[in-house]
């Protein structure tokens, strides 16, 4: 059973209709609630159901952003970010309307739920909330992408098992904003066996964490010098 409450909106989810009905009756006796039936819209998330599964999208919310920017007549773009865009531009003038930029980025952050394509570009833009320069033009480009991708969403299929597939193609060597000097590939360290021990033994967990931090810092050459 899952109960989500936001101000005066409540969403109940669970495997048993009888349990959901019991919770509704209890809440109604305590607070006199209004039952709106099967959820179709909650916190600007549209919920559609069919025999194929459940589809979550934020189409109306995305189009509202496009409308507020006056881009209803603009041509949509195919990607959320321009190719080979370098966000580091120290000589660019500071954006005059900082609040408009911050408000737009905050609205775009909420779209990451249903449109994962925006995660990288929006989180990059959020790093310049205090000192945005030409980044406003990038946010406008994102809004143009939303015009053609507003119907994108997440399908929870009834026919397939839910599995997580990840892909990473990060080019940190070109990222001048983070100032990360790289001369080669980054090794990934993993110890699954010790992870199982850490779950069962808190003492082992603390010691393993200290050992891992020491190993990680030594690999990154960040160990402090201790004076004798």
UniProtKB/TrEMBL annotation:
Keywords, A to Z, come to: Membrane, Receptor, Transmembrane
Q: Which domain of life is it from?
A: Eukaryota
Tell me the ranges covered by the Reverse transcriptase Ty1/copia-type domain, including all copies.
2-82
- A Pfam family this protein belongs to? RVT_2
What name goes with this protein? Transmembrane signal receptor
What organism does this protein naturally occur in?
Answer: Lithospermum erythrorhizon (Purple gromwell)
